[in-house]
Amino acid sequence: MSKSKSKPLSRSNRKILTTGKNLLRILNATADGIMILDSAGFVLFANRAANQFFCKDDEDLTGTMFGCPVADGHKTELQLLSEQGVRTVEMHVSALEYGNAAAVVCLRDITRHIDMQETLRESNEALRLLNEELTLARDEAITQTKLKGQFVANISHEIRTPLTGIAGLADILLNDCNLDEESTENVRLILQSSNQLLVIVNDILDFSKLEAGHVTLNECAFRLDCLLEEIKDAVLPATYQKKVTVSTEISEDIPKSIVGDSQKLRQSLLNLAHNAVKFTADGHVRIVAELVQSSDSSVKIKFSVEDTGIGISKFAKEKIFQPFVQADGSTTRNYGGTGLGLSITKHFVELMNGQLKVESEPGNGSVFWFELDFKLPQHQAA
């Protein structure tokens, strides 16, 4: 790269810089104080700013004794009393050999800089203290959240036990006892209410476990066709007073037995099926398992829950997977629920390395689906 040549000064510009009167005018126009000292420390020249630093507006420092500061790059700070109060001035001294001149002293007012540094230091200290307070508050909040989560989990356990007993006894009365029509309907309502309340308690318990980070995968071999039938049987009581059919479909090429966390899969599909039945007054709910791909040791299966219910708007789809959220306030009033089911299902599916998705339009039903990988039992893989 070639060096750029500097532009030579014109004769008129050179005259401006070399004329003593013009140089004096330039030096007096600078904000920094400039003094030239002789070897004995007397001032040979002081510009206007230097005079102002020492409150000499109407006088000239020339001829006064300043002292003999150490030359050649020495810097120090001075505290000067001016009309604006005490000012902090940085003094820089350079050696000079020109006639009687022995040193050049440059003075710069750094009071504002020092004040800004002090303000910044105070701000940093205040931020440090605030950060400590926020850290303590965060730790306290985390501790309180864990305690609340543990309390909710314990209460949920205590409530779920008698609820399971009520639902079980109602099921026995409904299926094994010869009840009249009115008694059958009453027991059916007891069973339906118990199951609905049990779903809510299970949601709260699962959510508290997720919040506490106590949910882990527990993989074992299971039959997928049996699991889907269990889910179907679990949601049927919720359809007794509706014109809704519940069906299951499973691809014939899916192996009879697969290895995975059957409890998390069951709970995920059960939450989706309960939601589908809850928001469908007339039509059908289909729980489907389709084979996506397979190998000698594993399979990928797509699970979907389809309904012909009220559907979901585009705006609502963006927030339904958040905890304690339903599509809008009216669904909470009309259909009930905690708004935890989809959030829990999303966490479970992601824990199993899947992704929960939804396809829906208002008035045209919904399809919730996800894909999961499963291993094959060793004897089946062989």
Tell me about this structure.
By secondary structure, this protein is of the alpha+beta class. The protein has three domains: 11-114, 2-Layer Sandwich (Beta-Lactamase); 131-215, Orthogonal Bundle (Helix Hairpins); 216-381, Heat Shock Protein 90. The chain contains eleven helices and twelve strands. The strands form three sheets. It has a five-stranded antiparallel beta sheet with strand order 2-1-5-4-3. A hairpin with a 2-residue loop joins β3 and β4 (85-98). α5 packs across α10 and α6 runs parallel beside α7 (262-278). The relative contact order is 0.07.
Distance between the termini: 71 Å
Question: Over all CA atoms, what is the radius of gyration?
Answer: 42 Å
Low-confidence stretches: 328-333
**Count of alpha and pi helical runs:** 11
Secondary-structure element order, N to C? HHEEHEEEHHEHEEHEEHHHEEH
Helix-and-strand structural type: alpha+beta
- CATH C-level class of the largest domain is Alpha Beta
Helical content (DSSP H or I, runs of 4+): 40-55%
CATH superfamily grouping of the largest domain: Histidine kinase-like ATPase, C-terminal domain
Q: Strand sequence of the main sheet, in spatial order?
A: 2-1-5-4-3
Largest sheet: 5 strands, antiparallel
Stated plainly, the CATH topology of the largest domain is called Heat Shock Protein 90
Provide keyphrases for this structure:
Beta-Lactamase, 11 helices, 25% strand, alpha+beta, rod-shaped, Helix Hairpins, single chain, Heat Shock Protein 90, 382 residues, five-stranded antiparallel β-sheet, five-stranded mixed β-sheet
